[in-house]
Amino acid sequence: MQTFATEAIDWPDSAPDLRRRVRALVAEHGESDPVRRANCWTKPDPSFSARLGAAGLLGMTWPSEYGGHERSQLERYIVIEELLAAGAPVGAHWIADRQSGPLLLRYGSEHEKRRWVPGMARGEVFACIGLSEPNSGSDLASVRTSARRVGDSWVINGQKVWTTGAHVAHLMIALIRSEEGSERQQGLSQFVIPMDAPGVTVKPIIDLTGAHEFNEVFFDDVRLPDTALLGTQGNGWSQATAELSLERSGPERYLSSMVLFLELVRHASRHPDPAVRDLIGRLTAETWTLRLMSASVAAKLARGEDPALEATIVKDLGNAFEQALPELVQAAVDVAPSGPEALGQVMGYLLQVSPSFSLRGGTREIIKGIIARGLGLR
């Protein structure tokens, strides 16, 4: 049976300088709204993304030929960790830097790579992911959006839903049924779709906090060139699941609520309480354990290994941690969610949005099934 093996991380010599650079950029940006600093990888700020790109902090592991900087996976991990811990508004470039850029570099035609990837590294081109569809729940294999071959083009029809960041994205990488009559995982392909292509319509989904993070995206006879096919026709399922491994492996899977933890520590420094002190100790131990597990995944990626199972375990445990945090704080501290104190504001916001944390990247039930298969239990 395969088990999760953590390891001592050999952080690169560049780590202290990278941390100083990121902290300086965040301080210069000066985000003061505590709610925007929570769950910050969903908060877009194109100007901040451009500043990161200009500083060489996006596309860090990518080839220089496509605008990347050929740094290590651990160096990239350090930058991400600092940005998330500070609550920096990284939502605009997040998906492009995390998974769309690497996917294009691995599977994309030369035309598509040169069209999109350098702009992603500059923090000027943003991406979204076209997976979920209406009436499908978490059953990704039930995709019905279709791609029909017409001459030397593809014509796309259908709909995607819960598409994060589609309203700011320049392109979508979508999983689409490219073989008529196929079912389930068979006959699926991935396509690169410009969001300004004729026939693409984006409609907002406003959540209960009033935020616009999700969208519906409609495709009405969207015509794409042959170069828009990503990878091999019919291989979309395996490509998409590999993409989800990238999505599940980062520190964002346990740091979405970290701003609340830091506000709790600040509150406790002014209002000492033994119960709160004990809670802080417990949360600190859990955070450090999750960090070691997450960084171990990054170390394996740096060695060229495929830690898909470990990434999925981190995703499941990390989501459980960050979902529980606002409820634990609410039970321990008498602070009003709508009051003037930052702790209450962040707690109130996360109490509303944290139920969604275990949906993104795969529901908890799906994730536990993947873990069970990886461990040989089913």
Q: Largest sheet at a glance? A: 4 strands, mixed
Structural class: alpha+beta
The CATH class of the largest domain is identified as: Mainly Alpha
CATH superfamily of the largest domain: Butyryl-CoA Dehydrogenase, subunit A, domain 3
- The secondary-structure element order is HHHHHHEEEEEEEEHHHHHHH
The name CATH uses for the topology of the largest domain is Butyryl-CoA Dehydrogenase, subunit A, domain 3
Average of pLDDT? 88
Q: For the largest beta sheet, what order do the strands appear in spatially?
A: 1-4-5-8
Shape: globular
Distance between the termini: 12 Å
Number of domains: 3
**What is the number of helical segments per DSSP (H or I, 4+ residues)?**
13
**Helical content class:** 40-55%
Second-tier CATH architecture of the largest domain: Up-down Bundle
Unreliable stretches (pLDDT < 50, length at least 5) are none
- Rg result: 21 Å
Amount of beta strand: 5-15%
The count of β-strands is: 8
Q: What does this molecule look like?
A:
This protein is an alpha+beta fold. The protein has three domains: 15-125, Acyl-CoA dehydrogenase/oxidase, N-terminal domain (Butyryl-Coa Dehydrogenase, subunit A, domain 1, Orthogonal Bundle); 129-233, Beta Barrel (Butyryl-CoA Dehydrogenase, subunit A, domain 2); 249-374, Butyryl-CoA Dehydrogenase, subunit A, domain 3 (Up-down Bundle), CATH 1.20.140. It is 46% helix and 14% strand. It contains 13 helices and eight strands. It has helices at residues 15-29, 34-37, 46-54, 73-86, 94-107, 110-121, 236-248, 252-255, 258-270, 274-302, 308-332, 342-353, 364-374; strands at 127-130, 146-150, 153-160, 171-177, 188-194, 200-206, 212-225, 229-230. The strands form two sheets. It has a four-stranded mixed beta sheet with strand order 1-4-5-8, covered by helices on one side. The chain has a four-stranded antiparallel beta sheet with strand order 2-3-7-6, with no helix packed on it. Strand 6 (200-206) and strand 7 form a beta hairpin. Helix 11 crosses helix 12 and helix 11 packs across helix 13 (364-374). The longest helix is centred in the C-terminal third of the chain and has 29 residues, at 274-302. The termini are close together.
